[in-house]
Structure formats: C-alpha cells, structure tokens
Task: structure prediction
Amino acid sequence: MVADLEHSQPPSVRFRISVEGDFDQMHLKRLKLHFEKFELAKLYASQAGTILSGIAGKLTNAWVRGGKDEVKFLLTEDADSWGKHHKNCWQAALYTTLADSNWFCEEGFAYAAVEAVSE
Result:
C-alpha cells in the first residue's frame, strides 16, 4: 500500500497498491480486485482526512516545540508503530508519506486544520 500526498488546503491523500519483488500474480490480481470492488482507495482517503484533521493540533504543538524536525519525528514514530505489526496497512502508508514530505512537515500540517474549522 502506498499513499500519495496532494499539496492542497486541506491536504489530501490518495492510496494505491504497490508491490515489491516477486509477488505472485494470482494474489496480485485478487488484491487489485478487492481494492477496486470494495472501493478501498476512496474509503482510506476518507479515513485519512479524518486522521489529518485530528492530528493537526498535535502537529502544531510539535512545530512550536521543535519545528519541522519535531513534526517529522512524531509522524515517523506513528509510521513505525503502525508498520511494526501491520506493514501493509493504510495507516502505515499514510504516516510514512506524511513524514517523508518536507512540505507537509514544514507547512502542510497547518492546512489540515482548515477542514476541521470549516465543518
């Protein structure tokens, strides 16, 4: 599972399947079928939006404490925590993508609160 971050206000995330190495073609076909049939990309994107608005305050506090590096540190901790036991879950993909984004760690996190305020 991979997440792609859109630099928008509020930020949004798209999910897609990504496989590494020799992945059995029958399993890949089944994975893609389930991903499409159950509209998992749409479901995960919606859930990610909720997560983003929910962590906006936490990341703002992190920014005040230590800037971009502190924001990245917290997101990396969350990515590692999710990925430790659920390597291919959407949450691990989300937090990894956010932590890897300089834009999100420097300013994008602040736009995540826009959605929460406007609702």
Confidence is low (pLDDT under 50) at residues 115-119. The CA atoms of residues 87 and 101 lie 19 Å apart. Residues 40-85 form the longest helix (46 residues).
